[in-house]
Structure formats: C-alpha cells, structure tokens
Design goal:
CATH superfamily: Metal-dependent hydrolases
Largest sheet: 9 strands, mixed
CATH topology: TIM Barrel
Number of helices: 15
Strand content: 15-25%
Distance between the termini: 39 Å
Length: about 500
C-alpha cells in the first residue's frame, strides 16, 4: 500500500525570491492544501504527489496588482474572464479592482447594499486569479455604508477621484450628477472628500482589529487646473498627442491635489492614505513634502508600470492616453530614482482594458482629447519592472516587495505576498534571461493593442501557480477559472 504523500506539489530547483531579504535562496518549495508548507534544500520528491522541475528559474511570490479596473469599458462578466487571464500571464495572482457606481462599470447608481452583491455575483466563477474590490463612496449614503461594506463584505479600501469635482472620466462634465448617477442635491467636491475621510476614520475606530487594513486611496488631480489648462492647450494648438494631454493636465495639478488631500487627512485623522499613480517629479515632491509635514499620516505612494516605461514621445501616441497623463522622459527617470531610493511603495498596472474601437475617435483617431483614457498592462507588470529595474540596480528581493509584499500588507491580504509556510501557495516561475518583444497579438487581454507594442523586455513569466494550482504555463492559460473573492483582511 502506497504511503500517504506529505505534499500536493513540490517545485524543485528554483532560486527563491522573497521580500525583505538581501539575497536569492536556492532550494525547493513544498505545497499542501493550497499553502506553502516547507521551503528548503533537497526536499524528497517521493513525498509529493506532483513534482515540477524549476530548472533554476527565479521563483517569485504571486504578484499582487493593487490597481486594476476590471469591468470599466466592457461588461464585468467578460472582463473578469479575459483580463484575469492577462493577469495570470503576467504572474499576477491577486487582482484588486477599483469599482464604483455611476456611468461605466455597471452603469447604475444607488446604495452599495444592493449594488455590490451584484458585482460579486457577476464575478463569481469568472476570475482566473484571486480578486477583491476597492469601492468609492460617491454620495452621503455610501459614506454611511462603509461599516456595512467592511463588516459584511470584507471591503477595507476606499477611493476618492478628486478630479471628478468638475470632470468626467474623459473631459469636462457640466452635469456631474448625471455622470456620477447621484442626486441633484449631492456634490462630489472637496467637502465630500472630507466627509469620506471622516467616514473611513470612523470605520478604523469601529473595527480596531482591521484598522491596519482599512485605507483610503486618492486619484490626485484638480479639476479647476485641468479645465483651465485644457482650454489653453487647445486654443494655442502648439502641442498634440501625449505632450498636449500632459500639458492639459499638468504636473502641478497633481501636486496641488496631493497637498489638499494630505491636509484633509490630517484634519480628519484619516491616517492610512494611498496616493495613487504618481507620474512626475512635482507629484512625488509634493507627496514627500506632505509626509514630512504630517508624519503621523501613514502614506503609501504608488507608481504604475506604464509611467515607468513610457514617456510622452512614445510612438503609441493616443493609445497611451491615461489619467494622470504619461509625462516627460525626465519625469520617468525621476520616478525610477525615487523608486530606487525606496520612496515609492509599490508598482501596479492600473489595468483598464479599452478596446481600439472605443479608445480612439473613428473620424479623428490622432486627436488625443477625443480618445478614451486608460489601457491594459497587467500582463507586463513583472517583466517591465524587472527589465528596466535591473538595468538601474534594482534587486530581485526589492522587486518582490514592490510587486507583491507591500501592497498585500497595505490592503489586508495577510496570506499573500511571500513564499513562506502558512502563506497561500501563489508562485511565479520567472526566466530572468528570456527576452521578448511585446506584441498585443500574444496577450490574453481582449484589448487588441498595447502602448508597449514593439518594446523589448528582458525577463519573462514561465508559469503561474494560484494556491498550488497551475493557471498559466509556457504561453497558455491552464484550467478553468479558480479565482476566489478575497474578503479582507484575509
């Protein structure tokens, strides 16, 4: 009679990349019941039901992509499938998605008590990776629902879109209540932002056991500055493409919004603040200045892989339109400098699949102000950071912190982000020497193009495991959707 096997999976002969370590460790990784149970050298293959030869590849913890927008431009039921496949392709095993009521997404208003269960029902059984949602309180009623969302649904992260004060998703909005689908008497403005912060702060007091996992994220741009500068740029007509869009939403608009948000966080004692997708020297400088001014506020600073790889002279043109905009090469290099100086906390994709027919205007495809904002990129997250980061001296262990550990810790994913006993067995086998040219045709995303087209990256995901299950291998997604909803903290 065959003895019972100790392990469900044994991945042998890998170079293990753990966060908060100073070196890569050679060894084997054993998995049982969806968890890492042993990390060591020469673990006996006879003790495992399945053995995978890692062939000396790097083994990263499954990536946590903390900023995605699944369901923004296509129905959630479709996006959940295709874009989670793209996530698995990129080594992402935890997809955290910003969601809200109003136009786009489900195109519905009303209380989250009815809205969010519908989101969860649509999501169930469709994601190939584990998933969670950040939610945006768009009116006073939503603020009152924050405790319900925390306690019943494990939603511990919330968002403010500061530029929605006078802007829609793509341009000026004279009918805010229609775009946001809120009552005519409601105002989505600085006062509302303050009240959201007070609501989040109350939740931190109400749920002390979850306090560290409760946070508020902010998209920091000021509508008034953008409106004025967009008008100037269009009237002058000297700039076009991504340069025009950057000038129309200038870096000091980010900096000013960061200062406003930070002071409100201080005023309201809303202490866990995430400053999203910083794009420029001015934005980062403002964020660091505010951290010194308000040292009691627990800031986190985010950057996207798009803003690290692209500048406003990129050949992609309108296809790289995003909010906040792609900036100058000098800004890109400054982002890398501050990333290497450990002043930025994580790298995300801000993945928002926007198909070509929706992305560009059919009559004037080169007009940046008529294009939709956002693009995908989760499938290039690890490769992009590794390819450019290693050139600049970024260590493998630091890459694991930036793409897995730091975001997992901030957003209450206590079982994610490391390769150690007790953690979910989310694992990425990565070939650091494999170069490839980015081609949209090879992406699992349904977007059909990429602003990274033609870019050569060094380092490629070979296999992705979710809780010990192989979900991506050698260029193909494997098996049915296995993703589970992550009620946080988890």
């Amino acid at each position: 009679m065959q003895a019972t096997k100790k392990y469900d999976l044994l991945v042998k002969n890998v170079r293990i990349v753990r966060p908060n370590r100073s070196a890569v460790q050679r060894g084997d990784v054993a998995v049982a019941d969806g968890k890492f149970v042993r990390i060591g050298r020469e673990i006996d293959a006879a003790e495992a039901r399945k053995v995978v030869d890692g062939k000396g590849l790097l083994a990263f913890p499954g990536l946590v992509d903390p900023h995605m927008h699944t369901g923004i431009y296509s129905p959630l039921a479709e996006d959940a499938v295709s874009e989670s496949r793209a996530a698995a392709q990129g080594g992402v095993t935890s997809s955290l998605n910003y969601f809200r009521t109003g136009q786009y997404y489900l195109n519905k208003g009303g209380p989250y008590e009815g809205f969010f269960p519908e989101v969860l029902a649509i999501s169930h059984g469709r994601f190939h990776v584990d998933y969670a949602y950040h939610l945006a309180p768009m009116d006073r009623g939503h603020i009152d629902e924050i405790p319900l969302l925390v306690e019943k649904h494990g939603v511990t992260s919330f968002k403010i879109y500061m530029f929605y004060g006078g802007y829609g998703l793509h341009g000026a909005s004279s009918h805010q209540h229609e775009f946001l689908m809120i009552d005519r008497e409601e105002k989505y403005d600085i006062a509302h932002f303050e009240f959201v912060m007070r609501g989040v702060q109350r939740a931190m007091e109400q749920f002390p056991d979850r306090r560290d996992a409760i946070s508020l994220s902010l998209h920091c741009e000021t509508a008034e500055i953008m409106a004025a500068y967009t008008k100037l740029v269009q009237q002058e007509g000297r700039l076009d493409g991504l340069r025009a869009y950057s000038a129309a939403r200038p870096p000091h608009s980010e900096g000013l919004a960061i200062c406003i948000a930070s002071y409100l966080a201080h005023e309201t004692s809303c202490l866990n603040i995430n400053l999203l997708h910083l794009t420029s020297r001015k934005a980062v400088a403002a964020a660091l200045t505010m951290a010194k001014a308000f040292p009691h506020v627990n800031f986190r600073r985010e950057v996207t892989v798009g803003h690290l790889l692209l500048d406003y002279d990129a050949p992609a043109g309108v296809l790289a339109k995003v909010n906040p905009p792609i900036r100058s090469r000098a800004d890109v290099e400054y982002l890398w400098e501050t990333l290497l100086d450990r002043k930025l906390d994580w790298v995300c994709s801000d993945h928002a699949c926007c198909r070509h027919e929706m992305k560009v205007d059919s009559n004037r495809p080169g007009e940046v102000f008529l294009g939709k904002s956002g693009f995908g990129g989760t499938e290039y997250l690890l490769s992009g950071v590794a390819s450019e980061g290693r050139k600049r001296g970024l260590s493998w262990n630091r890459i694991a912190e930036l793409t897995s550990w730091n975001a997992a810790q901030r957003f209450g994913l206590r079982s994610k982000g490391d390769i150690a006993p007790g953690y979910d067995a989310d694992l990425v086998l990565f070939d650091p020497d494999k170069s490839f040219v980015v081609r949209a045709a090879k992406s699992e995303s349904s977007q059909g193009y990429t602003p990274f087209e033609g870019m050569e990256l060094t380092g490629k995901v070979v296999s992705t495991f979710l809780r010990g299950n192989l979900i991506y291998d050698k260029g193909k997604v494997v098996g049915p959707p296995r993703g589970q909803y992550l009620s946080r903290p988890c």
